[in-house]
């Protein structure tokens, strides 16, 4: 068992951290305050190749294997202090691009992936509805077939990237009878489709630089050629792809765990009270020790997940455990960082309080922590768990 990174992966990690530190996040506080998307940062990431890390070279990407992609995403999360920008990129990659990579037809890939890779198109994932979140099979948006078109009608809410997205992966109901798992279909819906509207933007506590909105569909005509995987394949597509979203989105969170630890250690070493650094006090040093333990365990789980995907293996259980542990760990470590910084961690002068607000969302998006516990329990053999 070899836990070391390849020389190329180590070099990539350093390049990404240097890029993110030097070129991203300078206006993070401003984007958080004003709830604005960092379009310049997005373009810088596109030019650096971030949006194409998992995309094959034939579509303009880097063609990185899963583990190398995870290492790069972790480094991006460590180096970029604008968590909202990183989260927008994650939604683009792991809730839109990955659906095309895994389930798109050759024509769909050739038509869309180059634009998603070079940053000229922003992707979003439209699943959640006002009355359906975790209960995917209960969604109400419909897609009625008329010839070679489907007419989409319904409302999607809490959609990250929606106000600035150019392409939506939309899940809709195409059957009212038969097996529930065959009732849903997935569609690729461009922003300019008639009848598609952003009905409102949604303000939130953290990750405020990632725009969120409510999307309406009023008999939106979508060509049958924009179906992903065929009629009735939506649920299977979702369940087979969600492990990628949950696992890979955890990578930047592990990077944030490392950044929080380094920031807190630095502050505890410099800040003095009672004639000594506050890190000398056990109450502070134990918090830092716990942060280090959480980081190490999270990274081990993350790299195991990456290795499994690199081997082409299923990792539904591992992705659920990873999502659960990393989300809860980041929330705990962000709170510890606030406590280490004291009053300075609570006020807006430093970005520490923003880190805590941003971490709150991790236990919600991509399936709540309680949903992950249900998945883990079910796959562990707990009778009746779902």
UniProtKB/TrEMBL annotation:
It comes from the Bacteria. Signal peptide: none annotated. Residues 7-119 form the Acyl-CoA dehydrogenase/oxidase N-terminal domain. The keyword Flavoprotein applies. Gene3D superfamilies: Acyl-CoA dehydrogenase/oxidase, N-terminal domain, Butyryl-CoA Dehydrogenase, subunit A, domain 2, Butyryl-CoA Dehydrogenase, subunit A, domain 3. PANTHER family: ACYL-COA DEHYDROGENASE, ISOVALERYL-COA DEHYDROGENASE, MITOCHONDRIAL-RELATED. Belongs to the acyl-CoA dehydrogenase family. Keywords: FAD, Flavoprotein, Oxidoreductase. Residues 124-220 form the Acyl-CoA oxidase/dehydrogenase middle domain. Residues 232-377 form the Acyl-CoA dehydrogenase/oxidase C-terminal domain. This is Alkylation response protein AidB-like acyl-CoA dehydrogenase. Pfam families: Acyl-CoA_dh_1, Acyl-CoA_dh_M, Acyl-CoA_dh_N. Its cofactor is FAD. The keyword Flavoprotein applies. It comes from Kibdelosporangium banguiense.
């Amino acid at each position: 068992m070899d836990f070391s990174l390849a020389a190329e992966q180590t070099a990539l990690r350093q390049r990404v951290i240097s890029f993110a530190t030097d070129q991203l996040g300078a206006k993070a506080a401003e984007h958080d305050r004003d709830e604005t998307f960092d379009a310049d940062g997005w373009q810088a990431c596109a030019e650096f190749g971030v949006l194409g890390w998992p995309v094959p070279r034939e579509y303009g990407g880097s063609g990185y294997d899963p583990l190398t992609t995870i290492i790069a995403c972790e480094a991006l999360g460590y180096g970029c202090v604008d968590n909202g920008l990183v989260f927008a990129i994650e939604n683009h990659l792991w809730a839109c691009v990955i659906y095309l990579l895994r389930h798109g037809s050759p024509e769909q890939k050739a038509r869309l992936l180059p634009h998603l890779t070079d940053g000229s198109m922003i992707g979003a994932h439209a699943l959640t509805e006002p009355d359906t979140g975790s209960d995917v099979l209960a969604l109400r948006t419909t897609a009625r077939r008329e010839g070679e078109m489907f007419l989409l009608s319904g409302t999607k809410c809490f959609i990250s990237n929606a106000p600035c997205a150019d392409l939506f992966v939309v899940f809709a109901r195409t059957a009212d009878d038969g097996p529930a798992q065959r009732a849903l279909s997935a569609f690729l819906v461009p922003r300019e489709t008639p009848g598609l509207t952003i009905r409102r933007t949604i303000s939130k506590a953290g990750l405020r630089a990632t725009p969120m909105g409510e999307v309406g569909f009023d008999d939106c005509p979508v060509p049958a050629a924009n179906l992903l995987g065929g009629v009735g394949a939506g649920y299977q597509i979702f369940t087979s792809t969600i492990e990628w979203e949950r696992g890979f989105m955890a990578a930047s969170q592990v990077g944030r765990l490392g950044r929080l630890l380094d920031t807190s250690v630095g502050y505890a070493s410099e800040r003095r009270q009672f004639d000594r650094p506050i890190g000398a006090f056990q109450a502070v040093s134990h918090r830092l020790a716990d942060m280090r333990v959480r980081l190490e365990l999270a990274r081990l789980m993350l790299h195991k997940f990456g290795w499994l995907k690199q081997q082409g293996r299923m990792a539904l259980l591992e992705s659920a455990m990873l999502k659960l542990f990393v989300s809860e760990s980041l929330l705990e470590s962000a709170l510890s960082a606030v406590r280490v910084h004291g009053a300075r961690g609570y006020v807006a002068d430093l970005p520490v309080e923003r880190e805590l607000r941003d971490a709150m969302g991790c236990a919600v998006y991509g399936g709540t922590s309680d949903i992950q516990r249900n998945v883990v329990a079910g796959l562990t053999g707990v009778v009746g768990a779902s």
